[in-house]
Amino acid sequence: MVKRDFYSYTKYATEYYSGEKNGNHVVYRDFYNEDGSVAYTQHLRGKHEVFEFPDQIYYSKNALYLEMLKRLHLTKDDTIILDREDDGNILINGQLIFEHHNPAKLVIVVHADHYDEHYTNKKNVLWNNFYEYQFTHTKDVASFIVATDKQRELLSKQFKQYQNVTPNVTTIPVGNLQKLTKPTTKRKPHSLITASRLATEKHIDWLVKAVAKAHKEVPDVTLDIYGQGGEMARLTELINQYHANDYIRLMGQHDLTDVYKNYAAYIAGSTSEGFGLSLLEAVGSGLPMIGFDVPYGNQTFIDDGKNGYLLPYTQDWSDDKKVDLLAGAVVKLFTAADQEKFIQRSYDLAEPYLTDNVAKRWGSYWRN
Fold first, then answer.
1. What is the pLDDT of residues 92-149, one digit of tens each?
2. What Å distances lie between residue 247 and 208, 243, 331, 359, CA to CA?
3. Cα–Cα distance, 24 to 20 (Å, whole number)
4. How many DSSP H helices and E strands does the chain contain?
5. In whole angstroms, what is the distance from residue 219 CA to residue 76 CA?
């Protein structure tokens, strides 16, 4: 390999290689304007980069980013929204933006769990490393935006407790619903749906075991599992082990927009959801919900005893105990709950997430 071209609607870059038999590597890249002329050249030597423009040379990516920021000519009417900063050795864009955003407002979006509970006590907090710089420079931030009220309440409390600061923390959800989806035919009785990546942290194996157990008391209970992932083979084996093929199915990947409404309830085994788009979609279709009392999605979309069951959870409990809790909730939901009231409460919880209502939150934020 000595040369490689890159295209979108036109050629935008060319890489040139050293051409060595062993350890062949890129030595420089040309980036092109639309008319085919060279806009600039990136020279590489190990981790060191130099950017050569027709009228200027920038001796690091930080220097280039700084020039980009300056050329924006930001004013007090502008807003920079910064997600995770890149704090690698080559680029420190978070620090650059903090140092040079003025007079524009700087807004930080926190889209993941912001701290590690296992290494946090009454005196010290271990922030998520992607947000630590932002959290320790709160005076420069106009607002931190989180996806749920539960996370807003916790983060605000922690800022006060650990740093004795009270920055603005705002809730604006990361998802929205075009409409509330109502079924046109009767929902399938005692039918459960779950939707996620088929990954170990989603604990779908607990759901399989729980539904197999609940099947003894609710013989027509069913579970459809939507999604793909590395756990497919293990889940298939587990379903076979419980002889549950006729009522627990792996459905693969589908557009679920008009699928949720056909089911009687949604069940989740995950022990950590920053928001949970599938949870939002489920309540938007009026589904009663079952899940553990863990941050932050379940706590947002499950109103315990009113639209489902928010189950107690401690990490140290055995898997058997967690499965028993899930199974008990399934039986209770399908034998004792007022289904119609649960369905209506889910629709009520979904109402604030309609697109127009989420847009109003952004509008209200900018006005303030």
1. 668 889 999 999 999 999 988 899 999 999 999 999 988 988 999 999 999 999 999 9
2. 10, 9, 15, 41
3. 5
4. 11, 16
5. 64
